[in-house]
Design goal:
The complex is a heterodimer of chains A (about 200) and B (about 450).
Chain A: H1 16-25, H2 39-57, H3 61-66, E1 68-76, E2 92-94, H4 96-107, E3 119-131, E4 137-150, E5 153-168, E6 171-181, E7 188-189
Parallel strand pairs in A: 1-6
Antiparallel strand pairs in A: 1-2, 3-4, 4-5, 5-6
Chain B: E1 2-3, H1 14-17, H2 20-23, E2 28-30, H3 32-35, H4 37-46, E3 53-57, E4 66-72, E5 75-81, E6 87-91, E7 106-108, E8 111-113, E9 120-122, E10 127-129, E11 152-156, E12 159-163, H5 171-175, H6 178-187, E13 194-204, H7 208-214, H8 221-224, H9 226-232, E14 256-259, E15 265-268, H10 279-282, H11 290-301, H12 305-312, E16 317-321, E17 325-328, E18 331-339, E19 342-352, H13 363-395, E20 403-405, E21 417-418, E22 424-427, H14 432-446, E23 452-453
Antiparallel strand pairs in B: 1-23, 2-20, 3-12, 4-5, 4-7, 5-6, 8-9, 9-10, 11-12, 13-19, 14-15, 14-22, 15-16, 16-17, 17-18, 18-19, 21-22
Helix pairs in contact in B: 11-12, 12-13
The complex binds FE2/S2 (inorganic) cluster and fe (ii) ion.
FE2/S2 (inorganic) cluster binds next to loops of chain B.
């Protein structure tokens, strides 16, 4: 009897087809005629993103990981728009296992870039859901401003996110979170905190 | 070439006004070499441009007219392959009133037109024209109206360097025993070459030498990278992953550190790994897509998959070329000083190029895996070092406690060995490479070379 590989332990789902779909899904998706005017959907997407921001601000990383689908991606491109990650490196490109690695590393207490930890307050605004052509899957654009305080200094990180969300019951799960930092192609000081 | 008095008008001459022997000792250096803005300013001419300094990689400018902009020290530079294919390093500084003439990071341009008053230059640096020239009485054929450029620009196997020191030895002589080490790093690849691709770009608030000091430092790994070592091994079955050979008794391991002259050093961790194809891949920590692409490569290539997979794994070397080029793993890391206490470190990825199809059609899969492997260390390792560099910069604010020690291995009998060519070899955690680099640094700072620029005639 064979069972599907556990994406927490091995990475079988990040295939060429996965990258093809990723590039396709994140190219040219923010079209006026795809905006979903349904106020209820917009409100529930906003609530979902606000909860995500709260979990990150409170460092509840295990709970945050639960927001993601089993086979998921957290992607911070190093170029505006993101290009094709098969041909270029990203600031972060984490499948399920690497995302859990990221959280694990911070929890060791020896990730000096997060000792002391960043304190953050995130503002999430301009939430717009878009249709994808697949029933039950939405793209959501939102803008963010993160105020971060660490080791005696404060800074701001601004940008926008593209979340690819799947409806699950009354809520959503994150298939892909793409974080578009304004300074994505610039030299970043201590980008160790999850954005 | 024009002789320069680069710091004309400044009241002091750094070379004469500092007591370099008091700042750099055999076992320690003084905090001010990391904190003093005047020393930093002097480094920007005596070191950056005073000696061969890495500028760019040829794969960034493959065609004639291609350019990238960079800095040489703090000087804005356009590295361009001109109409005749000659690689030049032009000062990105209009001959009129000094504005930068090129503001793009990269591109292709036959001419550069200054956005301020429209003076226009060919990509050789020669002035092509100025608006309304009848308003001038001068002769614009005078070379002084052409862009300044770096008088010596040479490449070694794709790595482009420049110096403003007209008396410098040739680049290949300057690299000396470093050259065959670069060869080995490249010759693992099909065609013996790589293509630079996007980068993980980091910045820290600390002096640039803190990163250079770190580049062959085997002493810090177990401590500064403790979280990475734990993370890479949290799911392991079988081999210890990543840099685990630093964990127990690194000085007894077969790896070593070497000093190769002119501030250049080399950390060779390859002897820790079994000398057979695939052994490097076996210690690679987890990456996205790893298991899928490995299976695919094994199906496609059979036995030959081992070599392909090793190309996806992080090559266990640190090839450090003073002052700003650190080739490590599959990265080409460039140090860029911004201020005495601010440094950018840009970790360019490198992609495999397989024109002769040595990898039997697998090059795209190899690069896909390689991109993911490349992201690992900047994300989970370098961020912690960078914070430690910042914390050194903070610690060095303690004026009354000025010494920075680098004497690990000094005077320990039988530990440090020098061969007949002057190459110094020591165990992995030895700080001899730092001590020797600072001797070289002191020589350059105490008697900086006379610098020149050149202009087309
Ligand atoms: S500064 Fe360039 S044309 Fe005047
Ligand atoms: Fe390190």
């Amino acid at each position: 009897m064979s069972s599907a590989p556990d994406p927490k332990r091995t990475s079988h789902y990040v295939t060429d087809a996965f990258y093809d779909a990723l590039v396709r899904d994140f190219t040219d998706w923010q079209k006026d005629d795809a905006v979903l005017g349904d106020v209820g959907l917009r409100d529930s997407a906003r609530a979902f993103l606000e909860r995500e921001a709260r979990l990150l601000d409170r460092h509840l990383f295990a709970d945050w990981l639960e927001l993601f689908a089993g086979e998921c991606l957290y992607w911070v491109p190093a170029t505006p728009g993101g290009g094709d990650p098969r041909r270029e490196v990203a600031v972060c490109l984490d499948d399920r296992r690497r995302l859990e690695d990221r959280v694990f590393r911070m929890a060791t207490g020896f990730a000096w870039s997060q000792v002391p930890e960043s304190r953050t307050v995130r503002l999430v605004t301009n939430v717009e859901p878009f249709a994808t052509g697949t029933e039950g899957i939405f793209m959501v654009r939102s803008n963010f401003l993160i105020n971060e305080f660490r080791a005696g200094e404060s800074r701001s990180l601004a940008g926008w996110c593209g979340h690819r969300l799947r409806r699950v019951g009354d809520g959503f799960e994150i298939l892909v979170k793409q974080v578009n930092l304004m300074e994505c192609d610039q030299n970043l000081r201590n980008p160790s905190n999850i954005i | 070439m024009e002789d320069l008095k680069p710091r004309a008008g400044r009241p002091t001459d750094a070379a004469a006004s500092f007591d370099w022997d008091a700042l750099v000792h055999d076992d320690r250096v003084h905090r001010t070499i990391y904190t003093d803005p005047d020393i930093f300013a002097a480094e920007m001419t005596a070191i950056f441009g005073g000696t061969w300094t890495y500028l760019a990689h040829e794969s960034q400018i493959p065609e004639n007219h291609d350019f990238v902009t960079t800095l040489l020290g703090l000087r804005p530079i356009i590295v361009v392959r001109d109409a005749a294919g000659v690689i030049r390093a032009l000062f990105n500084r209009c001959a009129h009133r000094g504005a930068t003439v090129c503001r793009a990071a990269a591109g292709s341009a036959r001419v550069f037109q200054c956005p301020y008053h429209g003076w226009t230059y060919f990509n050789t640096g020669k002035l092509s024209g100025v608006p309304w020239p009848d308003g001038y009485a001068c002769d614009f054929d005078d070379a002084k109206y052409n862009l300044a450029q770096v008088p010596r620009v040479e490449s070694y196997r794709g790595f482009i360097f420049g110096t403003l020191n007209p008396d410098a030895a040739s680049l290949v002589d300057h690299l000396g025993p470093m050259a065959p080490i670069i060869d080995q790093w490249l010759d693992r690849h099909p065609g013996g070459r790589v293509r630079l691709c996007e980068a993980n770009r980091l910045k820290y608030k600390g002096n640039w030498k803190l990163a250079y000091d770190n580049s062959a430092d085997g002493y810090h790994v177990k401590f500064s990278h403790r979280s990475l070592l734990e993370m890479e091994n949290r799911l392991k079955v079988g081999n210890q992953k990543g840099m685990s050979f630093y964990k127990d008794a690194p000085d007894d391991a077969p790896m070593y550190v070497q000093y190769l002259g002119n501030g250049n050093h080399f950390k060779d961790k390859r002897p820790n790994i079994e000398p057979r194809p695939g052994a490097l891949w076996e210690i690679e920590g987890p990456h996205p897509g790893m298991e899928h692409f490995e299976e695919r490569l094994r199906e496609r290539l059979g036995e030959a998959a081992a070599r392909a997979l090793d190309l996806c794994a992080s090559e266990p070397v640190n090839i450090n070329i003073f002052p700003n080029l650190l080739i490590l793993g599959n990265h080409i890391q460039v140090l860029q000083p911004r201020a005495v206490d601010e440094t950018d470190t840009t970790w360019y990825g490198t992609a495999v190029v397989d024109d002769a199809n040595e990898l039997d059609g697998a090059v795209d899969d190899v690069n896909t895996l390689r991109m993911r492997a490349l992201e690992s260390f900047p994300n989970f390792g370098e961020v912690d070092d960078a914070v430690n560099f910042e914390e050194i910069q903070r610690g060095l604010m303690a004026e009354e406690d000025p010494w920075v020690y680098m004497h690990r291995g000094l005077d320990v009998p039988g530990r440090v060995k020098t061969d007949e060519n002057g190459v110094i070899t020591a165990p992995a955690t030895d700080e001899v490479f730092m001590r020797e680099t600072f001797k070289h640094w002191k020589r350059l700072m105490a008697s900086p070379p006379k610098l020149t620029i050149q202009r087309e005639t």
